[in-house]
Amino acid sequence: MSHLFEHNGAKGQGYSQPAPVLPASEITLPSGLIRKALPRWPRLSEPEMVRHYTWLSKRNFGIDTGFYPLGSCTMKHNPRVNEVIAQIPGIADIHPHQPEHHLQGLLSIFHEMQYMLEVCAGMDQVTLQPVAGAQGEFTAVRCIQEYFRLRGEVQRTKVIVPDSAHGTNPASAAMCGFEIVEIPSRTDGRIDLDALRAVADDTIAVMMITNPNTLGLFEEDILEASSIVHGVGGQMYYDGANFNAILGITSPGLMGFDAVHFNLHKTFSQPHGGGGPGSGPIGVKEHLAQFLPGPLVGKRAAAGDELDAAVDENWYHWYQPTHSIGKVQQWHGNAGAIIRCWAYYRRYGRGLRTMSEHAVLNANYLRHAIHKATKEAGVDSLVVDGAEAKVAKHEFTLSLAPAKEAHGISAMDVAKGLLDMGYMAPTVYFPLVVPECMMVEPTETESKDTLDTFATHFAEVLQVDAETLHAAPVTTPVRRVDEVYAARNLCLRHPYDEE
Ligand SMILES: Cc1ncc(COP(=O)(O)O)c(C=O)c1O
User: Fold this and answer.
1) Ligand 1 centre from 338 Cα, in Å?
2) 412 and 321: one domain?
3) 3-state secondary structure of 127
4) Angstrom distance (rounded) from CA 13 to CA 4
């Protein structure tokens, strides 16, 4: 037996529970909660358990096993030193319910993180509480909603999103009860200012947009867009999923935004995948700070008598913003993710700008390498850029529409073919505005050699015949799934119980 799913449910191995303290006759449970039969839990010995998890880990593809150019998800190397620091007992074993004087070290890290993110975003106050980008979006939009409610501007019931926006933007706004107003992009993929002007009025609460946008293009008209929205009294929200392109170069604050989220699990190298674990702190301008979820970490100004002054000046404490919308998580959210991010930024320091520059350089290098390799292989007519741009930012889009038309090869087929080549496939069919879209984001941590090899393999996949590609992948533990069926008929349990 190499894994749990092959286990025959044999009894008598593995961990034994201590006998209950109370005799069974003294335990009264509602009859509906009492088991009719013993559960068929596999009972594994330690070596079997180790084999099971090792077997599972080998079925997985991760950034540690291969190149992972998943556009918009920024899957970058997770430095191991971050793990070491996150596991220091003085950090890992502490609990926020301990008294403040036990927590000074941890609070000083959170305080520094708040400040560092404020500087990067050009914002006045950061909360570390949300645990995903999407939760950050929801939290910030709720703060803005509360801001308008206190001002009596309750007629602001709409949120503008461009048609290239990530799905979480309209979803977060809708969860707050806003009506979504989608505006079309220009043919070059950028924001259409005329379309924005046409919908901008005093019913608009927020415009949500990411820059560079989801096509990897910098929105050059962003200042004008901000002034249109501010002109009608609305607020600008920056979706920070694409921060990897601009860190230390520009900031949402400089672009006229009022609120922003970070994805620490993308830009700042916290491991992620499969929906978590994440961290999505938000930053806001001064006028929104009082609405943030609490507690925040503050640093007390000097107070008290002379003897206490030195201590007071460096005393970190929790505090509640005055008109807080309430909590979206406990305390500071996902502490482990924040510590890893802190370790990462401490190591880079001002070099964070170089990180973004290399991310942009790698994306542009790979884009050219793919075009060169497909040309040399004589298949360049099958793939075109998803958007016209001399320079992309940290990611770029390709369109496989010509391959589909010529040979019936879809973006999905190419993605599956790449799995057989040993890669994680780039993001497909997002953004929706690009037909047969493939979105590629190599990140700054990949070598020239990796990028060149991927480009060559990409061209090789385009030379494979359609029938073979329709059947791909053939080397992965799970072959091609019917994604619609899988999404509608979720099966999250091994059928072991039903045997
Ligand atoms: C552009 C964009 N916005 C928002 C999000 C949501 O972030 P999270 O997955 O952390 O909730 C993503 C996630 O991939 C994204 O790519």
Assistant:
1) 17
2) no
3) strand
4) 13
Spell 158-192 as b/e; 16+ CB within 10 A means b.
bbbbbebbbebbbebbeebebeebebebeeebbbb
CA distance 478 to 495: 16
Q: Specify the ligand 1 atom closest to the Cα of 165.
A: 1
DSSP 233-244: T-EEEE-GGGGG
Q: Which of 345, 286, 333, 316 is nearest to 111 (CA)?
A: 316
CATH number at residue 258: 3.40.640.10
pLDDT digits (tens, 9 = 90+) for 132-190: 999 999 999 999 999 999 999 999 999 999 999 999 999 999 999 999 999 999 998 99
Residues 327 and 429 in one domain: no
Domain carrying residue 182: 80-351
Residue 243 CA, ligand 1 centroid: distance in Å: 11
Q: What is the pTM of this model?
A: 0.90
**Residue in 239, 230, 287 with CA at minimum distance from that of residue 260:** 239
Could you tell me the CA-to-CA distances from 396 to 202, 362, 439, 471 in Å, in that order?
35, 11, 6, 27
Same domain, 333 and 363: no
Give, using CA atoms, the residue closest to atom 14 of ligand 1.
73
Please give the Cα distance from 470 to 408 (Å, whole number). 9
Which tens digits make up the pLDDT trace of 317-329? Answer: 999 999 999 999 9
Q: Residue for token digits 């820059």?
A: 211
